[in-house]
Amino acid sequence: MSDATALLREPWQRLERQRQAGKFGIWIFLASETLFFGALLLTYAVCRIEHPDAFAAAGRETNIWFGTINTAILLTSSLTMAVASQAAAQKGRVRQLVLACLGATAALGVAFMIVKGFEYKEDIEKHLVPGTGFALSQPSAQLFYGLYWLVTGVHAIHLTIGIALVVRLVLLGAARRIRLRGSPELEVTALYWHLVDVVWIFLYPLIYLPGRAS
Q1: CATH of residue 54
Q2: Quick one: 207 exposed, middle or buried, by C-beta within 10 A (0-12, 13-18, 19+)?
Q3: Residue 130, preceding peptide bond in cis (omega within 30° of 0)
């Protein structure tokens, strides 16, 4: 059985058409996700313009160390995913390298969620959840933290899905149930993972940097 035949899935008869369909589908999905996150970021921008002082005060309450650590973690995970994708496109015995890089990517994703869990715990203890007993005196500061919980929560859900997809590839690849070299599934998963990383790159300065220059 050739590599192309092993990678084919129904109803496709040619690997190239299967790749094109997979890439087209994931790009459509990524475009819809970009519109979704774009709407959230636009809402944030409008609220910040309307309430600059309250957003600056609220931004100073975020834990920049947690945010910076998680940014470094996701950037590293993007690197390991890129290495896995590049290795899978090469000829030769690269299966172990691809599996190692995918495993590292999933582990870094889990590390991000653990750090985010500690950050959420601190936010709750500091009464930075909008509602009764909110810690900050400015009413508009609750807008900031309402958006904070919304966008970081949605991002965490997307990252959790990404971790599950990567772990699936690792398990199937380790059991030799799929071929990792030239795998369209790996290509699609990598694109999704990079979307999650890019979204965080936009969220980091919006959430953690307001008010810190003054």
Answers
A1: 1.20.120.80
A2: buried
A3: no
Residue 22 banded pLDDT, cuts 50, 70, 90: low
User: Residue 194 is encoded by which pair of tokens?
Assistant: 């990079």
CA distance 29 to 20: 14
Give the C-alpha separation, 128 to 109, whole Å: 25
For residue 171, what are the domain limits?
12-208
40 within 8 A of 146, measured Cβ to Cβ = no
In a domain, 124, yes or no: yes
Mean pLDDT over residues 3-13, rounded?
49
Q: Is 178 helix (H, G, I), strand (E, B) or coil?
A: coil
Domain count, the chain: 1
Q: Angle between the 184-208 and 95-125 helix axes, to the nearest 10 degrees?
A: 30
Supply the pLDDT for residue 131. Answer: 87
Residue 89 lies in a domain: yes
Asked whether residue 140 is assigned to any structural domain, the reply reads yes
Distance CA 155, CA 165 (A): 15
pTM: 0.86
| Range with the poorest average pLDDT among 29-38, 46-55, 109-118, 195-204 | 29-38
Is residue 187 in a domain?
Answer: yes
